[in-house]
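Page 47, continued from p. 46.
Same chain as before, 290 aa.
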Amino acid sequence: MARLGFCGLGQMGAPMAARLIDAGHEVRVWNRTRAKERPLTDKGATAASTPAEAADGSEYLFTMLATPQALSDVVLGKNGLANGLGTGSTLVEMSTVGREAVHATRSRLPEGVGMLDAPVLGGIAQAERGELKVFVGGEDDAYQRARPLLAVFGPVRHVGPLGAGASMKLVVNSTLLALMTALGEALALADSFGLDQGDALDVLADSPIGVPARNKRGFIEKGTFPPNFKLNLAAKDGSLISRAADAAGLDLRVARAATAWMSAADGAGLGDLDYSAVIAQIRGTAAGLE
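Result:
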């Protein structure tokens, strides 16, 4: 049994923290919206009043936060977890924030505190079942020590030095955004031809874009998009991808276009829906979505 801290109990963080509790670890949790701590304290976790308190005495402190700014606030702000982490402890950063934010965080941690970045691929159901794919960046010895804990979340892959996990997550998310917006454009084109939606989805399901066509078909047909991966987070990830591409001097035109669609849908008020709601934005059917 390890003594752990977990900060960030959103759609993904809460089931991930629950898996650590179910695995028998002593877990102290913190969330900005305190009511979200209650289901976990009912399972045996201890609520911390601040991130620093969650970190105090923890062997590993996990963060699962929405944005680079949220990470900076929770780690480095007043009563931030950097004030509670002690020598020999390790920060495991699991948010999708990009390599730059990971290194900026590492540079501000106290001496003697280790760090891994370990973002995950998968949705709420995978988080609940322990089937997330975990991409880890960091030194090999630190990775090997943390691997049994990370395996609670799902299959674990060490992809390189610190920041490599964050980088790999942006690589894979660039494909998710491109595929979803491509599906939306394909359906918009089918609409313009007067094709039956069911026929179009049948054909697309057996095409190279089959995975999102099959996985999101129920949402598309019902015209409802309950959040699994929120659209506002997809738009944020697209911005991170675009900034990383600009920094590398890359002209990623598909990524830019996908980000533009996600940002437009977010601006239209669809941010709290599933990212597949961008399809409704592209098809011009987003009015009235909730």
